[in-house]
Amino acid sequence: MTNDGIALATEVWTRPVQEGDSRDLAAAYLRNREHLRPWEPLRPQWFYTASGQANVIRRRTAEHERGAGSQWVIRTRERIIGSVSINNIVRGPLLSGSLGYWIDADFQGRGIITNAVEHMLWVARSSFGLHRVEAGTLPGNTASQRVLAKAGFTRFGLAENYLLIQGAWQDHVLFQKILHDDLPEVL
């Protein structure tokens, strides 16, 4: 890890989201609003503002402190170009979390998001002790499905009316990656 974070590609790094990222993160979401629209829930206008992202970052930081999740930004020296996160962490016999990610339209197809996903899988195991990670994609999101396949995920089902995306309940293809079969010392 450098001062910039974990290298994902030439001049691209990932690191945990920080309080000072709110302006850059808002700009990244605004710049990619149309690119991300088909895959995301309807977003309120405040989501695309620095103050709105500051609130999101505070929630994400609190989740991290509780061991419930972690968000990392993907950035170049100039700007944030994406994000990868693990959230909805469930302890006990499941030891699982949900993966989320996105990449700037101008940086697609370079392997950056696959590298970020692989790094987040390492975080899920080493920092959170998770047994498995799951992810879901809309059936037509083949680019995201390729990312998951490259990172070693396997498809395990289809969830009907799974998430509210763009104002309608949408089916999602479900994927999982088993990180290890070690037994925890305590559940």
UniProtKB/TrEMBL annotation:
Keywords, alphabetical: Acyltransferase, Ribonucleoprotein, Ribosomal protein, Transferase
Pfam families given in the database record: Acetyltransf_3 (PF13302)
Residues spanning the signal sequence: none
Residue ranges annotated for the N-acetyltransferase domain, each copy included: 12-180
Family the entry assigns: Belongs to the acetyltransferase family. RimJ subfamily.
Listed PANTHER family: [RIBOSOMAL PROTEIN US5]-ALANINE N-ACETYLTRANSFERASE, GNAT FAMILY, PUTATIVE (AFU_ORTHOLOGUE AFUA_3G00765)-RELATED-RELATED
Name of protein: [SSU ribosomal protein S5P]-alanine acetyltransferase
